[in-house]
Each structure stands twice: as structure tokens, then as C-alpha cells.
Amino acid sequence: MKPATLKELAARFDAFLVDQFGVLLTGSGAYDFAPAALSRLSSYGKPVILLSNSGKRSAPNEARLTRLGFARGSYLTVMSSGEAAYSALRHRIGADLAPGTAVWVHARDGDQSNVAGLGLVPVDSPADAGLIVLAGSLGDVLTLDDYRALLAPAARRAVPCLCTNPDMEMLTPQGIRFGAGRIARLYEELGGPVEWIGKPHPLIYAEAARLLPGIAPDRILCIGDSPAHDVAGGQAAGYATALVRTGLHAELDDTSRAALCENEGAVPDFVIPCFCFDPPEA
């Protein structure tokens, strides 16, 4: 868990998998330093993929980043858990998932990109669904008790659930709230079956690796704010990892942050102040 700077790491590695929320984005916008830093990192001529537990597909994520001031040319793509899940679902239609299956998609902003064009039939309630896709959380509006009541009928029928955003917590304008991963965990507690797609699970890393042919795993650096997701997932994929001091655990001091990483069994190779080339003075 060596202190480092983004400038040092940019010169040291050959490709970068960069988290969105907590690294580039706050709960309400972009970190002031992030758009310029991402452009500067891309100027090294090395591939940069934004690896995100967003349940939305790549295109909506890219559109949001553009609205927030990020140059589209500063990264290859957003490899989101939503995009990885869409690819997985597309290959299952007609195999272990019947065309026309009723699907309840739960996402922020009413996003339905997870199932668009797949021949599934969206429904308004999980009680009517043959498949549940948890792509986001309304934890800033609904309580876990609300979700318990909403999901219990489907759990009793063992309706399969695909969690396309495994984050247990999320950044919102109101502060940290529970994420889609916590809702999926609740569904498991109710007896429902859940399949997880996104960090730290392997599928999203396999999808990203396809875009980085010829680059050895030990030459790829994962940058994120979550030991449980970014660090653990990157390490399992064989990549080096760097933890930023911003994001979900920004309020922790270095001792507490180190203890958290130890407790999670996910100690990063490096710790950097933020996703910035000119860190603020301590």
C-alpha cells in the first residue's frame, strides 16, 4: 500500500481501468480536477477504459460524461456492468431465457437500456416478472423496508435476479445511500436467486481484457475508491491496483483506510490522493 501520484503511475503502466463514481464523479457531478486529468492520462498514448459498476450501458454513461465536461477522446469506452450484462443476456435469449420473458428493470432515471432490443417484455412490478434486473437503486427515495415489500412476492416464486450494479453504497447529492447491490443482497435474504455482474466479479474484467489485446495483466492498473470492488476485483484479475482517497471513504484517515483494506482482504498496491496530476497540498 505504497503512496504514489497519478503522474508516477501513468508513466509506469501500459493500460488503465478507471472507476467512475468516487474517482471521476461525485454524487452530484464531476470532481473539478477529473476531466483534465483524464485527458492528460490519455495523452500518454496508452489505452484508458472506464470500468464502472453502473447498471446503465456504455452509451448513456458516455453521454453523461460528455455533459459533465469529459472529452470523448480521453478514453476508449465505458465498460459498465450494464454493458457486460447486456452482452450476457443477448447470448441467453432462446437458450436459457425464453423470448418474450416478462422483465422488471429497476434503474435510476427509468433507464431501460439493459434490455432494449432483446425481445423481453418490460413490466411495472417484480410480482409480474419472470426476470428481475437490478441496475440501480432509489435508496435516496425508498427504504429497505419498501424494497422488502416490493420484492417479497417475486422472491417467493424464486424469480431469477440479475444484479448489474453490485455496489453496496452509492454517492448521491444527499450523501451516501444504499446501492443496488444492497437491494440484491436483500433479495437473497428473502430467498430469491441472484446472479452478480460487475466489480469485483470476473465477467466485467474479461470484457475489458478483450479490448486490451497483447497487454500483460501486470502492466494494467485499476484505479478506484472501493477496496471491496475495485481493489478486490482488480487483484483477482491479476492487475495492479491503486486506491484514491476520494469517494466513498474520503472521510477516513490513512490508518482507518488501511484497516478497512485489511478487513476487506483487499490491500491495494498504491494509494493516491485523487485522480489528479497536481494533488492539493496536504
TrEMBL record:
Signal peptide start and end residues: none
NCBIfam families (alphabetical): HAD-SF-IIA-hyp4
Source organism (scientific name): Albidovulum sediminicola
Record-given protein name: TIGR01459 family HAD-type hydrolase
Transmembrane segments: none
Pfam families: Hydrolase_6, Hydrolase_like
Keywords tagged on the record: Hydrolase
GO molecular function: hydrolase activity
